[in-house]
Each structure stands twice: as structure tokens, then as C-alpha cells.
Amino acid sequence: MTLIETDVATLATIVGEENVSLRHTDLEAHSADESHVEPHLPDVVVWPQSTEQIAAILRYANDREIPVVPWSGGSSLEGNPVPVMGGIVLAMYRLNKILQVREEDMQVVVQPGVVYDALNAHLRRVGLFFPPAPGSSDVATIGGMVANNSSGMRAFKYGVTRDYVRRLKVVLPNGQIIETGTRAKKSTSGYDLTSLFVGSEGTLGVVTEVTLRLLPLPEHVAAAIAVFDSLHEAAATVHDCVRYGLDASAIEFLDEHTLHATNVQHNLSLRETPTLFFEFHGSEAGVEAQVEYLRELCEDNGCIDLQVASSAEVREELWTARREAREAIKQCHPGKAMISGDVCVPISAFSGMVEYVHGLAEEMALRIYTFGHAGDGNLHTEIIADRADRGEFARALEATDRIVLRALEVGGTIAGEHGVGVAKRTFMEREHGPSLEVMRALKALFDPKGIMNPGKMFP
Amino acid sequence: MTLIETDVATLATIVGEENVSLRHTDLEAHSADESHVEPHLPDVVVWPQSTEQIAAILRYANDREIPVVPWSGGSSLEGNPVPVMGGIVLAMYRLNKILQVREEDMQVVVQPGVVYDALNAHLRRVGLFFPPAPGSSDVATIGGMVANNSSGMRAFKYGVTRDYVRRLKVVLPNGQIIETGTRAKKSTSGYDLTSLFVGSEGTLGVVTEVTLRLLPLPEHVAAAIAVFDSLHEAAATVHDCVRYGLDASAIEFLDEHTLHATNVQHNLSLRETPTLFFEFHGSEAGVEAQVEYLRELCEDNGCIDLQVASSAEVREELWTARREAREAIKQCHPGKAMISGDVCVPISAFSGMVEYVHGLAEEMALRIYTFGHAGDGNLHTEIIADRADRGEFARALEATDRIVLRALEVGGTIAGEHGVGVAKRTFMEREHGPSLEVMRALKALFDPKGIMNPGKMFP
């Protein structure tokens, strides 16, 4: 449906004239995320400033059956917030307050628009942090991370966003405001509504307040890079690290192409062969013991070079390089489209997945970069294609699909940490079978008129 | 409703005559758990042997609107599986196979009747374990743990059952079989149905297969006991351990009464003042560093004695004493009723809760033992009362209620790890407010006829 004048006037009554926009620049700024998904303009952008305003907007939109799409950092990679059916974009930027740091309880209460890096910068003063570290940490917001159950490089040790969400304030599509969860560290009281909303990609309601559990900042941090002649040896090392309980905070894999892009962009001279990045968090003695343990495991598996970053500068340099791998790849191919992949497979299938992708690149004459959170079995791919070259672009999309199907074949999931959005909807039935009907029933229960972020998650 | 002859005959057709019983001894054996909740006989006990049989039973029961109550170890403490409305008890004992150990992926697939200790004994051979350690580990089954989202002493480091469940096979009340989750370590594909079923206390369906994530057994284990003159000092130590990131696997609290019962039953001579038990898992160097760190924190807070258990025997002796604290208390009061409490509060409120309970004991002339998982803010109470002494028993129930209400007042939850069952239903509205209506709607969605474990969780 298209919004009419009275709709816009009503929204202005709720949030104030200055917080409603029909300007093309504003609509365009909320039409596309970082994915290859086709942009789509919303009808209107509003900037709500309170839970109550959002409740009023949802009540009205539900009554009029107008689509509502919450919008956070816009750094998602599957088209998650693209307003494919138009309607209202709820831009959450102005709900960006850190409401309460409960230092004694190691919790923080925030509004959804708080940016991840800003939150951790604030918490650093009291020696605490929120561990999940998405690659887009400088723009990703807590609301977006909750919606997508984001994780990142440190999930190996610390888990994902869902593991840290203790309470949520949520506006349901009918405008009702509920609170889920508890301030206690654990609870067995009733159904886990909190976990249901986390990762629901804005399809069940709008999160307006989040209580996160925090951890003390590690006393000591170390990093290491292990270089291998072959993927097989790198994979065997990952296997041993996981299987024998190496207490690393991150175990990251980069293939030779990704290292090349990283070297070019960051003026580094890392060897361009299969490489693992490690990070350790703990006490100094504990970390030292783990680094020694890593040394043993690397030697056992034919590592040709293990470098332990001794200084904070070197460590930061390496991790910046890893974090910005995607950006480096992008810079190497100006003007080209980049299709991001994000599958997660059982650990035993990780190296097979990398091999499959490399084989596919050769077979389909495509440049495919692979890297990812090897310790979790979470593989990212970046396929480069020229949108103007229809054949190449079609092959790139086909390769993306084949990688997802392969992940399912080996017992994995279609989405490790980027969510389903628009791009992966077609695989939901294949992954979930009859469970998809249960998900649909849940969607219908919470959002019978289907106003919340329509066109996402479900095929 | 009461079952009629044809109902029993139909059940016999599904599972075989020998797996259906109307014998009083069988009914009685499935009428009460370990709580103070009044026993109630089911109409019939059946021992299904496959998912398909359970699907057939549920289809039939749903059609006839007969209550169905899954029954596992029977060690629950809130009346969780007591068949308060009669009907069919599904005794899950014969679904007790470890179906697959996926060593490479560090996962195990089990049937729900597998006992926790038996599973870990089996996994020990390959150096893996399932961390949540309930007090009743020798009888608690994986199915029961999933239904109640059980945890225990090691939740401080390792979290709760929900954190380890990767996949579930579930029979819905209408007999439909679904599978949730993935074999990958993490996923952002669709709604988290797995977390919804975990902790649902058998009210949404019957879990018939569970895939658990496992961890490598720790290389080194150590234990320590810290004794204090006052609760205040013990609590300050817990606070510092949590706040400054002591990497302990368990931080347990026992009050003077509990220590007395423990000494009597185990022929120990532990000092009978507020005491903390610690356990450490890690590399030898890492554990040593943490024990030294604990020593510092204890000294800072006026600990009068810190003993580190050097040998495995002493360690095991201490932890057996802690694990069996409840049993020791019971033995000290033969013939008396024991009402178990299980609240969980924000860490900052833990010592205040203990003080409140001690004050209540004095005010109401009751013997109340307190102990619990201090590192999680999870406090257990055991109130001793003579059922024959109506006044005392009524005071004991009142005290139990007041402890729960106090936990809510300080921002905690009514149930840390024992679930809601029958005993805590009346507090659900007060804890969850409007969210309770959402939970009711979910219950109605999955189980419109209300056949699954009726009379539980909801007031």
C-alpha cells in the first residue's frame, strides 16, 4: 500500500513534524544495507524518541496495515532492513542512550540505537565489556545486534549476542509494551521470550530497551598468527585447538586471496598462504600457557611459521587487518559488486567447505575470497562480480546459492551470523522443514497483519 | 476426565500390552517428585519406546483431550511432573540410548531418558563432557534437564542446559514431529525454537531426541574452601571474584546450619561459619594462577582460612559434601517435611537475600538452611517443618512465599534452576506482568486443547 497524506500527518502528531521525512535523500539513505539486495525506498522515515511513540506508531500502522521496518546501523549483509514493501522506516538513531550501568551486577541497560564501539568505550572506564564483536563494530548498534543475534570474531570464547541479553522491552505490533527476562543471571521461570525476540530480525516487534550482561575486561590479551603451506594443515590445527580445548578468544581463518587483499590495503607483508589468526584473553600466566599450548599444536600440524604479537601495536595492526578484510577486498575491486556469504557448518566440515568453495571458484571462473571464524565453523565468502556483466553476475548468485546448499548437505546452517533477511529466504524451507510452519505460526500469532518488516525471513 | 477401557486398550495397541500399567504401585511411583507438592496419581503409566509411538499417543490423547505428562528422573523440586490432573504418564526410561557421539564436532545425540552421570561416564572415554551439573546428577535425565533448563554448581563458568542444546526432536501435542536447531555451533536462521522448548517443562510437546554441544574435559581441576567470620565478608569475596573475573568453575555458598548438617552426615569437621567452596577447571598453570588470585581476594576480604584441596580424594570429599548438602539436611530431620527454595537475584542482592532469610527464620521461629550458587546469585533454602504441626507447616509455606516475593522485590526471578511446576505458578503474574499473556498465547498456539502437563507453570 502507499501512504496517504493523513498517515504522514498522524505520524507527525506522534513524533513531531521535525522527526518525519518524505525527502528523497532520507528515503534513499534507508533503502539499502551493505548487501547485494536491490534497494527499495520506504514511503516515509520517522525518528521516534521513546517507547511510547513507537507504541503509538505501531498501533496506528497495525490498524492501517502499513509495513514498519526498524532501521539501525544499516550494516547488515542480507537485506535484513531493506523496506522491500515500502511503508514506514523507524530510524532508531535517536534512541541512543546508555540508560544505566549496573556495575555491581555487571549489566548495562541501553536503548537500541547505541553503537557497539561506543558502548564498549563507555564501559571500559569501569573495566567491563560486551564481548560479541561484529566486524562492523563502529556502526553496528545494539538494536541491530539483538535483531540479528550478531556475533563475530570472539564468539569462539564468548558466544553470541543472545547469550548476553537478559531483558528486553518490546513493542508488539499491536502497540502493546512488554518486558521479558530478568536481572538475575539465570532463570527458569516461564518460556524464554527473550531468546525468541533475539534474532527475529524485527519481524515480531520493536525492541526499545536492552539489558545486557557484561564481563570484566581481560587482564591480558595476546595474539598470534600461524602460517601453513596447505589448507589441510591449517584445518587440522583448528580441529586440534577446538578438540583439545585451547582457551583462545578467537580462531580466525584467511585464505591466500584474502591475505593478498589485506597486504595490499594495509601495506603488510603477510605470507599469502592459508593462515590462522588467534587471540587470547585471560591472566598473564594463563595466556602464556595457552600460547605455549598453541605452539605445540601448530608444530604437530606442520605450521611453517608461528608469530606471537608481543606488543599492543602489532596486535592491533593484525586485528585491524582481519577485521577489515571485507573492506580490503572491496577496495581491490572498485566498481564491482561483492556478494557476501555466511554459512556455518559442524567443525568437522569446515575445511571441506573451504575446499568446495575454492573448487567452485575454479569451475565457475569466479574470484571468491574465503575467510571466517574457523573455531565456530563459520565461513564467510566474498564473490566479486560485475553487475554489468550479466553472465558473471548470474554465476556469482548461483555460486552463492550452491555454497549455501552445500552447507546444508554437510549438516550446517544457511546463516551463521548475518541472519536470513531477503537474500536467504528461499533456503528456509530446506533447512527447517516442518519447523518452518511453526515459525510461520509464531509470526502470525505476534503479527497477524504482517506489518513488521514484511518480506523477510519467510519464503 | 477419567480414562475408559478403550483408551487403555488403544495405548496398549500403540506401545504393547507390557508397556502399559494400571497397577497401583506403578501409578504411585509416578505421583510425586522430590518437592512438597501433594502427590496425585495418573490414570495410567506407559513406557514408549520410540518417537513414533509418542506421536501416536499424543495424536490419540489430543483427540480425546486426555492429559499427558512426560516423566523422567522424578528428582524435580517444584512438582514439575506431578500429574495433578491425572491422565497418561509417559515414562521415558526406555528411551535411554546414546545414539551418536560426534567426537569431531564435539556433540552427542541422545534420547531423553539418558541419565546425566551415565552420559558423562560414557563421554569421559573420549575426553569430553556435558558441563551443567545438577545436584541430582545420578538420577536426573537429559530429558528432564532440557524440560527444566537445569543447571547446578558449574553454571558460573559453563552456563545452563539451554546453552548446550543444539537440536531437538519434538513431538507436538497434535502428534506432528518436528526438528529444531542445527548441528552447526551457531546459527541465525529463523526463530530460536530450540530455546523455546528448553525450559518449557513439558507444556509444549515431548522432546524425544537431544543433540548437545560438548566441551573437552579440563586438563586440571582444583578446589578450595574459604571460611569467614561473617556473611558480609563472604559476600564481599563473592562480589570481588565475579567483578574481577576470577575464572572459577563454581563459587558455592553454605551457611553455618548447612555446614553443621554436612559435618554430621559426612563425618567432617568443617568450621561452621559462612563458607565458600570454589572449583577451578583449566590448564595447570592457569588454575594455579587463579588459585593465587583467589588467595589475594580472600585476604582482602578478611577470610580466616583458605584451604586448597591438593589431592583428588580431598577434592572429591568436599564436593560430595556440597553436592549432598540437601540430603544431609534431610537426614538431620527424619520424618519432617523439607520445603526447597530456589530464587536467583542480581549478584549485588545475594548477601541481602541470605540476611533476609536468616531474619525470617528468627521472626517465624523456623529452621531454614541456606546455600547455593553464589557466583550466579542463585540461593537455595530448605525449610524444615512438621506436616503434623499445622501451624509450623503453614509458617513454612508462608516463609517460602515471602522469600520468593523478596527475590522479586530486589529484581530477581522466582525460579533460578528448578522451574515453576506447581509450586511457583502463583508468582508468574507478578514476575512477568503482560508477558505472561504472551506465554499463555504461545501455550494455546502449541497446545490448544491443553493436554500437555496441565496445571503447571500458569496460575
**Which percent bin holds the helix content of chain A?**
25-40%
Mean pLDDT of chain A: 96
In total, the number of domains of chain A comes to 4
The DSSP helix count of chain A reads 16
Strand arrangement in the largest pleated sheet of chain A: 15-12-14-13-17-18-16
**How many β-strand runs of chain A?**
18
What is the name of the CATH architecture of the largest domain in chain A? 2-Layer Sandwich
Query: Which assembly state applies to the chains in this document?
Result: homodimer
Assign an overall shape of chain A.
globular
Rg of chain A (CA only): 22 Å
Structural class of chain A: alpha+beta
Head-to-tail CA distance between termini of chain A: 20 Å
pLDDT below 50 for ≥5 consecutive residues: which ranges of chain A? none
